[in-house]
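Q: I'm building a small set of examples for a reading group on sequence design. Run inverse folding on the following structure and report the sequence directly after it, with nothing in between.
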């Protein structure tokens, strides 16, 4: 998967000129798509997962003869978003005609997220001694939340900060508790960076937090979307609509499960 820094500037122009309708489907990392609305003007339409996605797919296939490219807007922590999007495309089948719909690769992986958080934490304020980084995101399920702790650990391991802590909007620990933990650990100041796809609500001034702003700029989002769309359309031209891979996205996410006696090595899908 192409890293953000290697996406050429003309990629965004190619997306605007590409012969496809782009649907940006959102889950818990984007408040079910609400945080994606600000990107509607860069070539895609934001839509939440579930029935609204099916309705948007049907409408797009009816209103135009162009292929429809669905991009799961996850930063690598919402595997169910990918699988649900794949199920929506599988249910729709060839209703709009064969070869009309394609599921792209997820917007980003956790490796991308680690790199982007490191970049967001490299602002001048974070370079001051005694600064802790607080990574925040909307609360999700326990497994997705646990993965954010893994991401934060990698940000700390390969960054310059002594403290990299995690907090969840609407979850536990909440941002205020996260700031308090940073202070108790000895931090003189706290830089909050977002691991979500929207601009997080500002924390109370009394907490004395330096706000890092959104994780990605609109130009960066546009460049990544251009690559995802181009890759998906290339695969679609070769007969791969991305659904089979998407249906397996949740495999290995959640509690471990048994396949019965003697089934130690299995190679099958969980459709």
């Amino acid at each position: 998967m192409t890293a953000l820094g290697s996406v050429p500037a003309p990629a965004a122009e190619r997306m605007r000129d590409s012969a496809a309708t782009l649907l940006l489907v959102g889950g818990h990392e984007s408040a079910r798509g609400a945080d994606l609305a600000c990107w509607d003007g860069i070539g895609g339409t934001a839509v939440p997962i579930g029935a609204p996605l099916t309705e948007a797919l049907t409408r797009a296939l009816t209103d135009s003869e162009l292929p429809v490219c669905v991009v799961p807007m996850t930063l690598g922590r919402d595997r169910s978003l990918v699988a649900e999007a794949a199920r929506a495309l599988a249910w729709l089948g060839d209703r709009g005609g064969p070869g009309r719909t394609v599921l792209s690769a997820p917007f980003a992986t956790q490796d991308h997220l680690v790199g982007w958080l490191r970049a967001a934490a490299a602002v001048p304020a974070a370079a001051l001694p005694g600064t802790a980084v607080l990574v925040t995101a909307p609360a999700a399920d326990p497994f997705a939340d646990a993965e954010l702790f893994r991401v934060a650990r990698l940000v700390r391991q390969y960054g310059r900060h002594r403290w990299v802590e995690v907090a969840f909007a609407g979850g536990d620990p909440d941002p205020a508790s996260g700031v308090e933990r940073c202070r108790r650990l000895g931090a003189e100041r706290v830089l909050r960076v977002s691991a979500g796809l929207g601009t997080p609500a500002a924390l109370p001034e009394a907490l004395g937090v330096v706000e890092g702003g959104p994780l990605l700029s609109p130009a960066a989002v546009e460049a990544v979307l251009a690559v995802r769309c181009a890759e998906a359309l290339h695969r679609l031209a070769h007969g791969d609509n991305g659904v089979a891979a998407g249906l397996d996205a949740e495999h290995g996410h959640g509690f471990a499960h048994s396949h019965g006696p003697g089934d130690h090595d299995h190679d099958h899908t969980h459709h």
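The radius of gyration is 20 Å.
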